[in-house]
Amino acid sequence: MAAFGDVLEWTKHQVTSRVPKADLDQRDADYIREQLPGLWLLASLYFRADVKGLDRIPKDGPVLLVGNHSGGNLPPDTFVFTLAFCSYFGVERPFYQLAHNLVVSMPGLGSLRKFGTVAANHDNAVLALKSNGALLVYPGGDYEVFRPSWKRHEVDFGGRKGYVKLAREAGVPIVPIASVGGQEAALFLDRGQWLAKLLRVDKMARLKSVPILLAPPWGLAVSDMVPRLPLPTKISIEVQEPIAVDDVQAGDDDAINDRVLASLQSAVDRMAARRRFPILG
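Above: the chain sequence. Below: its structure as tokens.
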């Protein structure tokens, strides 16, 4: 058992050591400016991107954007919202997104860091907000993003509410970002939390889910680490009214978390009711 434990610790070290340190200077406004027209055209045609309510986000200064999350390791909601934010506010406004360690360290995805993507941890989040940036977080993480497709319209952070403490510490408002459509980019069958424990990747790579899904071109797939083609699902996103954390008694994180969840779920229900068909929207 001791030998196995040593192997486990060695593997964990190898994974974490490959995660790039957060360097906000890796965000490249010139690169975003060059890529934005083509990528926004792609998002508009392939995902029929529909983003509303961007005027509800404060025009400047640090802000915590908190969204429900869908689409696995290739989340079209993040792709669409990032492009919409940069188009609306301009590429010069600092904007960052938190992502799982494995996403930011994957070969071939270095361009994400040029768009402002950094590894999801508290220190990186604080750094982004202290730099006067807007920060997009998905508290549900892999728990929410790999939920079965028949639960696609459920907002579920899995009990995670560390983002509230982050907003309090930074003294910034929380703006809920509601989206629908992303969980139709593939057919997600099971979160695979049991499989993550069986394979010990929950210990080695902080990966709590090894999902089982159906997606082109592979058909049935176990895990979402192999590149796949997302289905051309319509992505609809709606920004909600800001929530000021100082409006609620200090220390009552549950009250703020409940308000954020209620805001998101209400918006998701409203948008889902307008959606006639899966994928087609």
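Confidence is low (pLDDT under 50) at residues 1-8, 10-19.
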